């Protein structure tokens, strides 16, 4: 009821004010019609033009401008000519005629300079500054506005100061200089309060709230918006803008209750206008809210709608936010390939935005903008035209010129002599250089021959090593693989002949399983080693969850763990790495097999992972027999090195060599820490994203 009464009073006041304004204009028009063609008539006409301009009657004001301009020119009334030209330019600016506006401002400034009217020069500079900034010419605009401010601050021209401060605030906002932008918008806000200009107050508060948000001063942002909500001058359009903004700010503090309250209001205010930037912000914020509350289906639906709308509206800021939210959503849903694509899109768009911002900054820098506030006012007032004066040379100058010509001839003579001497020296240098070059070529040939000999010796040594490895492999295959397969074959023959009872067969199953596992791992390592020797290992990296790999590989060795009486503890966490999954599965399987091989009954194997400097480090720890310091250095070498397990298990000695090669192919590293008799821990470090080249 109180609000309705206030609105009624404001409406009555506005109607009364409008009627009063119209009456003043009518009175001035009547007074003008009966005045003689003199300076008094020009002054009345100027009052009428000002009144018409202030109520937005630009066409009618322009008619009086043209008539007054003719009269002031006839009377040679300089002050009136300057003011009429200024108002004419203001009208052209309002009508969007940039060329005539700039031309008129320039003319009026020249007239005010002749009159030494510093206040009106400041007004013109201020108007030019606003016009140039509106056209995107920040360099020129800021120079003129800064030139005007000193004079304006020494007067009580609050309307002009409001325009100047707001203009500079907008300039620094475009340049991403948030501190200076806040400073000027705050000054403008103080002036607006004095003028009781509620429309500009609301607009300036919106800018300040956005700047505080950019500076991550979210409490201040919320305070500005809540003060606006308490202001009775704001309308529905303002509320439609405020609710999404304040809801987004509460989200940054994880205050979901307040965020929900304001975002729901923002949705209701904007749902009828589904093609607005405010509705887009509501959709993105609701999507983020629902992700945090684990309502993923609703969040995905809202974010799909916001993504399409952001592209339609070409709103790069909200599209950037949409990409981040989609990445977060797909990561939670374990769609890591899609999450990676959203991350790429975010990076590309963010780079494009930064380039645009840098372009504006560079334009201002290359324009040699002198941002020393208040210092350039006098230089703009005292601009003078320069004229060309013809100066005849004196007798001394003629004599100097003759001496200069003589010196010039002597200089050219010396230059010619120097050229001849230089040519002779160059020919000598070329001859000497040729002989040196011939000697160097001979030395290079000798060096090449020596290098070829060294390469031949190294190749011979490499072939010998390969033959040694081949011989050892054949020995392993003939011994270990033969033993395992013979044992399996023997069990099968006994079973087929009926020599074994069911109870005896069941007792032998663990041993049969162990032999089969040994043979499988042996073949597995031999196959991968042979592939690496043929240089056919090509990693195909993707994003995958390392915890899934642990779970899968632990499941494979569960039976062998139980038969050997070993406990396994899984401390792995959900985390994703960027690597070839099949290779990392091979590494994990080898490390678990080694831990099992060298552990005794009652020992423990622990798997775990954690994040370090943007990488994922996982480990396989056992409380088994440990490794001596002398043997640690042999583990990852290309030569085969193996020892028997606690149950006399055999191996190829190739497993850790293959592990090292596969980890390094995926831009990672592997190492071991061990104490003899206490146990061993193998560590693997892998990247979480595609490494930068």
From TrEMBL:
<dbReference type="InterPro" id="IPR050351">
    <property type="entry name" value="BphY/WalK/GraS-like"/>
</dbReference>
<keyword id="KW-0418">Kinase</keyword>
<keyword id="KW-0067">ATP-binding</keyword>
<keyword id="KW-1133">Transmembrane helix</keyword>
<keyword id="KW-0547">Nucleotide-binding</keyword>
<dbReference type="Pfam" id="PF02518">
    <property type="entry name" value="HATPase_c"/>
</dbReference>
<dbReference type="GO" id="GO:0005524">
    <property type="term" value="F:ATP binding"/>
</dbReference>
<dbReference type="InterPro" id="IPR036890">
    <property type="entry name" value="HATPase_C_sf"/>
</dbReference>
<dbReference type="Pfam" id="PF00512">
    <property type="entry name" value="HisKA"/>
</dbReference>
<keyword id="KW-0597">Phosphoprotein</keyword>
<dbReference type="InterPro" id="IPR019734">
    <property type="entry name" value="TPR_rpt"/>
</dbReference>
<dbReference type="InterPro" id="IPR011990">
    <property type="entry name" value="TPR-like_helical_dom_sf"/>
</dbReference>
<dbReference type="InterPro" id="IPR003661">
    <property type="entry name" value="HisK_dim/P_dom"/>
</dbReference>
<dbReference type="InterPro" id="IPR036097">
    <property type="entry name" value="HisK_dim/P_sf"/>
</dbReference>
<protein>
    <recommendedName>
        <fullName>histidine kinase</fullName>
        <ecNumber>2.7.13.3</ecNumber>
    </recommendedName>
</protein>
<dbReference type="InterPro" id="IPR003594">
    <property type="entry name" value="HATPase_dom"/>
</dbReference>
<keyword id="KW-0808">Transferase</keyword>
<feature type="transmembrane region" description="Helical">
    <location>
        <begin position="409"/>
        <end position="430"/>
    </location>
</feature>
<dbReference type="GO" id="GO:0030295">
    <property type="term" value="F:protein kinase activator activity"/>
</dbReference>
<dbReference type="InterPro" id="IPR005467">
    <property type="entry name" value="His_kinase_dom"/>
</dbReference>
<dbReference type="GO" id="GO:0000156">
    <property type="term" value="F:phosphorelay response regulator activity"/>
</dbReference>
<keyword id="KW-0472">Membrane</keyword>
<dbReference type="InterPro" id="IPR004358">
    <property type="entry name" value="Sig_transdc_His_kin-like_C"/>
</dbReference>
<feature type="domain" description="Histidine kinase">
    <location>
        <begin position="476"/>
        <end position="690"/>
    </location>
</feature>
<dbReference type="GO" id="GO:0000155">
    <property type="term" value="F:phosphorelay sensor kinase activity"/>
</dbReference>
<keyword id="KW-0812">Transmembrane</keyword>
<dbReference type="GO" id="GO:0007234">
    <property type="term" value="P:osmosensory signaling via phosphorelay pathway"/>
</dbReference>
<feature type="repeat" description="TPR">
    <location>
        <begin position="162"/>
        <end position="195"/>
    </location>
</feature>
<keyword id="KW-0802">TPR repeat</keyword>
<dbReference type="Pfam" id="PF00515">
    <property type="entry name" value="TPR_1"/>
</dbReference>
<keyword id="KW-0902">Two-component regulatory system</keyword>
